[in-house]
Amino acid sequence: MIKRRPFHHSIYFKSKKRPITSTCAVPLDPQPTSNDHTSLFQSRVHDLLRRGLLSSAQQAIQRFIASSPTVPDAVFAIEFAAASGVDLGLGISCEILRKLVDLGEPLSAHDFYHDHLIARGIEPDSNIVNSMVICLAKLGKLDDAVKLFDRRIGSEDCVLSNAACTMILEGFYEQDKFLEAFDYFVRISDANVKLGMWIYNVLINGLCHQGYVGEAHAEN
């Protein structure tokens, strides 16, 4: 029986790793919960796995995570996937990262990233990079966020989010590194990412305050 467990930073899915399978090797018999949506999710995934539709089951798990209102709900989906013998896959991994960051668990997202993506040699795509840039910035690891950001910006398949770009610039602002922020602002603009006017105003004021009038004038 799959049970919900209290969420904490050490949940980590470290002990939940299972062999990758293309079908459900051991039929599940999940017990209905009081939540109709969760019960429907369990039944749907169970049915898809019995029919050998692994990709569809992964998509159902990903959708459940995306709609989860709390971290424990999202974690439940991961535990359910592990108990089902379902490989998380890139799509599910991206979604759990985004959800952990969005719901205020950047440390959990950071550990998940290293334990389940980097450890498996998975190259971060734009979705992962966007989530991890936000995550690292929230953890005060601006240098690491910038390194990850630099690996993607300017690449042909780069799709940077407004939120990730904003977090990079905010990180520089907090450290009074307005000249560095100016350089990234230009690169972000060249990547056709549109930022809020307040980001622009703070940058101009910061550059002027530190004596970089020429750079500030160039942005006007």
Automatic annotation (TrEMBL):
KW Repeat (keyword) present: yes
PPR repeat spans: 125-160
Keyword match RNA-binding: no
Keyword annotations: Repeat
Stored InterPro entries: PPR-containing_protein, PPR_rpt, TPR-like_helical_dom_sf
UniProt similarity note: Belongs to the PPR family. P subfamily.
NCBIfam families linked: PPR (TIGR00756)
Protein name from the UniProt record: Pentatricopeptide repeat-containing protein
Organism for this UniProt entry: Salix suchowensis
